Amino acid sequence: ADELRERGRAVFGPGAAGARIESSKAWAKDLMVEHGVPTARGVACDSLPAALIELEKMPGPVVVKADGLAAGKGVIVCQTHAEAAAALRSMLDEHALGDAGSRVLIEECLVGPEVSFLAFVDGDTVVPLIPACDYKRAYDGDEGPNTGGMGAYSPTALVDAAMSERIVSEIIGPVVRGMAARGIDYRGVLYAGLMLTDAGPKVIEFNCRFGDPETQVILPLLDA
Q1: CA–CA gap between residue 11 and residue 62 (Å, rounded)
Q2: Is the pTM of this model over 0.70?
Q3: N or C: which end of the chain has fewer CB within 10 A?
Q4: CA dihedral of residues 47, 138, 83, 192 (deg, nearest 10)
Q5: What are the backbone angles phi and psi of residue 149, rounded to the nearest 5°?
Q6: Residue ranges per domain, the chain?
């Protein structure tokens, strides 16, 4: 995208700097904390000894996330510290995810229904799309490991007009402005994976692209 823009081409999509919001969960977490965007409490670690020390400070359950891109396989929900320690060892010591897992996030486990919230962004203006819900677990009954997505539906009654406005006001808008403050002119789709907790919507992760499979159920609903 950067090279095409340098050649005067019109491009729909962020450049390399903006794409870090997906390619580095630690970078995205730092951006959210800096601008007061609601998200899970967490800490980034790049060595197993440091990660195990931080793990002991956190009550379970926790979520272990690879910092880099792992094709939807880099997030492990751990009910016990033993499970979390095994996940950390797999990523940081055994390098099961390669470079993607050379740094990890250890986060509190949020509770609530999950929603995919996508918006068109032109560097300043935010135009939300119809939210969707996807099914990430590999097996029936919402069981098994997370995947990149097994199915999706849209619209969802979980997000009404008021909630959509709240998400734009508290999450999407501040993140776009935060990137602008860092000199990043973000243009394209911004995808927020959200958990609707009792305390309100909180960010699980960001993607700098359309979601799969969510896009397959969102695009047919567009009046465009």
Answers
A1: 39
A2: yes
A3: C
A4: 50
A5: 135, 125
A6: 2-39+110-221, 42-108
